[in-house]
Design brief:
It is built from one helix and four strands, in the order ββββα. It is of the alpha+beta class. It has one domain. Strands 1-2-3-4 form a four-stranded antiparallel sheet, with helices on one face. The radius of gyration is 11 Å and the shape is globular. The two termini are 20 Å apart.
Amino acid sequence: MELIQDPRCYTDVCIDGQWYHYDHCGTSAYMLKGGASSGIELQSIPTTENELIELLSR
């Protein structure tokens, strides 16, 4: 699925039982969990959900 390139949009994905939040048009994401969230810096701006999952899985 192609990600809408609008900074007002976001995508939440589950990878191996862990949920991640990504705000479109950026290179940062974070793990959704109670308390402090773990920040992740992506190597590039993903254009599809599959690319986002690949970047988060590294």
